[in-house]
Specification:
The protein is of the alpha+beta class. It is built from 3 helices and 5 strands, in the order E-H-E-E-E-E-H-H.
Length: 108
């Protein structure tokens, strides 16, 4: 099992033909037990770079609920820090951006 203590979500779409080396250039320097998550323009593919303390792994998979920005909003930061719950929700296709508001149910 690869341990990930901190997960970073990169908000700019990437060409999924890029390998680990090219994505690592975007990260700069990968820190041990950190994961770096990237998606393509249509959010149909993701790649995850993980530094396990010895080397960097490049994992990729299918469709996910990616970051959505309403028109006119300020541009997203280059990377966002995700919690373990947000990452788990992202990888199963749930609205991970709304986890905080979904944790409370109230009657109107």
């Amino acid at each position: 099992m690869i341990r990930i203590d901190t997960l970073w979500l990169y908000t700019q779409p990437q060409d999924m033909r890029a390998g680990g080396d090219r994505l690592l250039n975007i990260v700069g320097s990968a820190r041990a037990h950190h994961g770096y998550l990237f998606a393509n323009l249509r959010a149909t593919r993701i790649k995850l770079l993980v530094h396990d303390g010895f080397g960097v792994w490049c994992l990729h998979a299918g469709r996910f609920t990616w970051l959505q920005h309403p028109p006119g909003d300020a541009p997203a930061p280059a990377a966002l820090r995700l919690t373990a719950q947000q990452f788990e929700a992202l990888t199963v296709g749930l609205p991970w951006q709304r986890l905080g508001e979904l944790s409370v149910i109230s009657r109107s």
